[in-house]
Amino acid sequence: xxxxxxxxxxxxxxxxxxxxxxxxxxxxxxxxxxxxxxxxxxxxxxxxxxxxxxxxxxxxxxxxxxxxxxxxxxxxxxxxxxxxxxxxxxxxxxxxxxxxxxxxxxxxxxxxxxxxxxxxxxxxxxxxxxxxxxxxxxxxxxxxxxxxxxxxxxxxxxxxxxxxxxxxxxxxxxxxxxxxxxxxxxxxxxxxxxxxxxxxxxxxxxxxxxxxxxxxxxxxxxxxxxxxxxxxxxxxxxxxxxxxxxxxxxxxxxxxxxxxxxxxxxxxxxxxxxxxxxxxxxxxxxxxxxxxxxxx
Length: 296
Hints:
Layout: E1 2-7, E2 16-17, H1 18-24, H2 29-37, E3 41-43, E4 46-47, E5 53-54, E6 59-64, E7 84-87, E8 91-96, H3 113-121, E9 128-129, E10 138-144, H4 150-159, E11 163-171, E12 180-183, E13 187-189, E14 197-199, E15 208-215, E16 219-226, H5 233-240, E17 262-270, E18 277-281, H6 286-295
Protein name: RNA pseudouridylate synthase
GO biological process, one term: enzyme-directed rRNA pseudouridine synthesis
Domain Pseudouridine synthase RsuA/RluA-like: 90-239
C-alpha cells in the first residue's frame, strides 16, 4: 500500500473541502470514491466526511489501499549508469542519452533507459513511465517511483502543467521569417513508411511553439514547446517548414553525421499533493555545444 502524509498550507486560499482538495490534486474520481467508502483519507489521523473544510497546518493522510492502474510495468535490470538531474521520494528525472530507447518494446529486452533506472532504484523502488522521448532524442525524462502518481502526471500532461521545453539545431532550407511563432499543422501516419509521420489534413491536431535563439544563413538554434504530444511532432513540424533538425535520419534528406541535434533541456511540473512548481534543467550535451561553436 502506498501512503502519503501532507501538511496542508492554505496560502491564503478560501475554504476548501476534502473533496475539492482531492480534485485539485488531480486524484482520479474512481480513487476519490475508494478513499471515501474505505475511509482512507484522514485529517489529523481521523476520518471526516468529504465536505469537511481543511484547515491550515492540518495533516492529511492518504492511504492508497486499492490497486493502481499501471501495476504491470516491470523491467529487467539494465547495464548503464543514469544521469540523475532531480530525485525525491516519489520522482526521478534523468537525462537520457541519444540513441537509447526510453522503454523496452518486449519484456525480454534490457537495453532501454527504463531498464537502467530499474537497476538504479532496486531494491528500494521500481520505475513507472510517465512520458517518453524518441530514441534519437536526448534530454530529460520524468519517471515515477510509484504507479499511484502516473494518473496524476497524466492529467498534468493533458492540462499542460507538466511542460517540456526542447532545444534544436535546424538546417535552414528556407529562411525563418518570424523570430517566434506557432505551428498548427495536423500530423498523421505516413502511408509510405510505417516508421514515419507526416503533416496531413486528416491527421491529429498538433501544436508547436518555436522561438529563434540564434541563426545564420545555414542553421538556427530554436527553443521549442510542445502544446500537444504527437509521435515525432517536433521533427515532423520542423521538416514540414523546411527547417529539418540536423542529423534527423527520418526527416532530414541530408546524410546523418552524428547524434540528432534535439535535446529536452527543461521540464516543469507540479509536485504532487502541493502547489509547488518544480523546474529541472539540463545543460546541452557536448555534441550540440560543439556544433554551435563550429557552425555559428
